[in-house]
Amino acid sequence: MTTYVYAGAADWGGKDPAKCNRGLYRLATDTGTWTSLEQGLPAQVEVRYLTQHPTQPGVVFAGTQAGPYRSTDAGDTWQPMNFPNDEPVVWSLEIHPADARIMYAGTQDMAVYRSEDSGGHWRRLTVPNPDGLCVMGFPTRMIRLAIDPTNPDELYAGVEVGGLIRSLDGGATWTDCNAPLLQLGTQERFVQRHGSRRASEGMMDTHALAISAAQPGTVFLANRLGLFRSDDRGEHWEDMDIGRFSPLTYARDVKVFPHDAHTLLGAFSIAAVSDAGSLYRSTDLGATWTRFDHDVSIDSTLMIIAASAQSPERVFCAARRGQVFGTEDGGQHWQAYPLPAGVEGIYALSCV
Known about the structure:
The chain is mainly beta. About 5% of the residues lie in helices and about 40% in strands. The radius of gyration is 19 Å and the shape is globular.
């Protein structure tokens, strides 16, 4: 049986935009062949996020520079999801764990949208400007959304570079979770030393969020400085000290393994643009970690992790400069699946 992995590429700061090979690609794992997916998508599509319907494996969602798109035939064709006319860049998509008709989209310029009819209509939510927000050389974006699977009204939005905000009522109202992060960030080991940049910039540089059903109310945060956790819905934060286990501590992604709520997967590298990455696994909600990938060489920043909801044996990850790696036997063996030559700026990954 053919199974698919989807990878999305977009413009990124480390390469001339005119030379970027953007696009959406699908890997058939039985042949190891990548196919460029184009039908129905915008020209020169840039894909920042990918996810799949929780109960319909052939339904795939993509966040693009022209809003969200959906495929109902495993990526062969795509349709726009009736997003508002301004068509903001979609950086994150999250589906309600108990009602797949409810969806959230996080966009560039720090907006969050909610749909209650499977993407037929969208409503922009009112979200605050978080304290500590750092204005960068790129637009502020809602880079990751996370819902507590045990209480779907609890929704978190990660802001790059602005920490995170929280809603406890399904997006109706929002609060800023940054005060304790900013306080933690005053510790000498977390203070950034990059010219005139704000000292809090590293702590505000959110990349990913995750919440496990095994520990409701606990939020895991991946940012430039490592991994952090809050056991009280963002009221207090502590360093998970990933440096005890990994020599690489720049955290780009953290995911809860869909087949075991106590297992986390983490993507760690040197920096945003680097020549090394690593995939780690924790089976005790982050108390300890071990290297998960092996016998492959991750030669750029590891950006994204995708674990199959269908098979506990299938885990894939992707690195900045077009490398994709996967295991089909629970990590015993790993294989490299390089994207077509020239494809870089990998932000999105999903697998059946």
